[in-house]
Amino acid sequence: MSIKLYDSELKVMEVLWSQGDKTAREIAALLRAETGWNVNTTYTVIKKCVAKGAVQRSEPGFLCRALVSKSEVQAAEAEELLGKLFDGSPDLLFASLLDNRRLSPEQLRRLSERIAQAEREGEL
User: Fold this and answer.
1) What is the model's pTM?
2) Measured distance CA(116)–CA(94) in Å, rounded
């Protein structure tokens, strides 16, 4: 995925990912309550998402639909983070999280389970 979404655009995408298709007006109302944005700000951000190919807007009522999934965006952002700060090395990222005690015992358990699952499925 080559779409780069900024924080404001991710707020619009979060609405669509969590609640499904919404009209621009519904998104504006939700984001006004959440962030205090006015309608024009929300519409401008939606337009940016449309221009990037992340959102499709159609009639009636400027219905908005996410064209990229949250998992696609998460994967792209993770790759970018790895490349920028960790020389493309996932183990350096996890070492940083461990060194800074950013992972709870439950998170460590889930991560261990995910690694074991990936090994069983031949992903590693």
Assistant:
1) 0.81
2) 16
Closest CA to 103 of 117, 118, 115: 115
Contact 16, 65 (CB under 8 A): yes
pLDDT of residue 104: 85
What are the C-alpha distances in Å from 98 to residues 29, 78, 101, 103?
40, 17, 5, 6
- Using alpha carbons, list the distances in angstroms from residue 59 to 13, 22, 49, 69: 19, 11, 17, 22
Total count of residues recorded for the chain:
124
CB < 8 Å & 24+ apart, contacts of 88-91: none
Residues 49, 55 contacting (CB under 8 angstroms): yes
- Tell me how far CA of residue 51 lies from CA of 48, 54, 61, 82, in angstroms: 5, 8, 18, 27
Q: Average pLDDT in the 66-79 region?
A: 94
pLDDT of res. 53 = 96
1: pLDDT strictly greater than 70 = no
